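Deviations from the work plan: none for this task. Representative record:
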Amino acid sequence: MAEALRVGIAGLGTVGASVARVLRDKAAELTRQCGRDVTVTAVSARDRKRDRGIDLGSATWFDDPVKMAQAADIDVFVELIGGDEGAARSSVKAALEAGRHVVTANKALLAKHGVALAEIAEKKGVLLNYEAAVAGGIPVIKTMREAMAGNSVTRVFGILNGTCNYILTRMEAEGVSFDVVLKDAQRLGYAEADPTFDIEGHDTAHKLSILTSLAFGTKIAANDIYMEGISNITQADIRAAGDLGYRIKLLGVAQRTESGIEQRVHPTMVPTASVIAQVHGVTNAVAIETDILGELLLSGPGAGGNATASAVIGDIADIAKSRPGFQHGPVFGRPAKELKPYKKAQMRSHAGGYFIRLTVHDRIGVFAAIAKRMADNDISLESIVQHAVGGEAEAQKTVILVTHETTEAAVRKAVDGITKDGHLTDKPQVIRIERAG
Ligand SMILES: NC(=O)c1ccc[n+]([C@@H]2O[C@H](COP(=O)([O-])OP(=O)(O)OC[C@H]3O[C@@H](n4cnc5c(N)ncnc54)[C@H](OP(=O)(O)O)[C@@H]3O)[C@@H](O)[C@H]2O)c1
């Protein structure tokens, strides 16, 4: 049997401790699958004394993960520290430069430095595996990088943040406000004390930027993503969506268009009957649309110690199964030096259907004025519904418009016009409709 694969784990928190536990509990099975033992020989974290509920056996402890990355007795450096700079970045870089394979779950690091790190890995002939960085336990990187050879991706989209999907699912099921569900999610540990990163779409954007690079062979462009979070979604939107046959999901979408690549993260209406609309709670899903395969949807646990550890261990097993001299596939599906510059499509030219919810004074002529603004901007309407808003001192109406395919520029212009007309009593709500099978 080949020599054991020696693994060093940096970061022994939620994911790191699970990885160490599973590697120990499933050692015999992994040996059978990989044809060699997989042994944890080194570990690193901040607090050596903390009880992590795992037996680290004879693994050498390192206070400094950079030193561990350079240590002679590891073949694979597993980075589970987190963050786009600091210890995570310096240790991953040190490991690659020392010729060690790297496995990481760190989307923030890859979104910012992925291409530069891939260049080092490819120069050194080592693997940089990151399955757990996007959609946790769902094997989407492997699917896109390996199982879809020859396919040209036209669109990739998904529910990439469990916290947002959990909040939207409960808002719909229980009819309660965003704020109430968020507080409960924080109490239950599904949302961070500072939830901004999740609910405003940053986490989804990091993951999307990695998928975009894999899908279209472009350099990662995490700063060029149009982003709207879910904090403005109200019960009125959720109810109206339901009445119209839609469900609201926070999606990350990357799409090839004539003017470039769209990368966008925003609340989206998807048909209630679509497969992605059935993805509830903290579950994640990724849909990949290609010329040969058509549409593929993968769904499953996007976070949590064990689910994430499953993806990390799959990456470690791939390294254990690889042989010296074997030419590994490039990190982002094509050599890092050949990744094309990212050509951004302007959001104004985004084409699609739109949901527009307006709260207006209940006066004669308002409805006609709204219809005129739409017509002036060549927006054709699929439906227009109005109903009275009860219990207010002044009579108000809600007008809900669903457009046929139009452009973002036209919708913005029409809604600006309606706002200027002075008919609105509240901020207008605009939600894009996404085609989904
Ligand atoms: N949690 C999930 O469900 C999930 C899902 C997908 C991806 N990820 C990614 O996985 C990574 C780890 O996440 P996590 O939830 O496991 O984080 P975590 O629970 O906060 O654990 C982080 C670990 O890193 C250690 N650490 C921090 N700074 C360090 C330093 N300078 N040197 C050495 N060790 C250091 C900490 O040590 P101490 O324990 O001693 O403080 C801790 O063990 C992140 O990149 C995250 O985005 C997490």
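The chain is about 35% helix and 25% strand.
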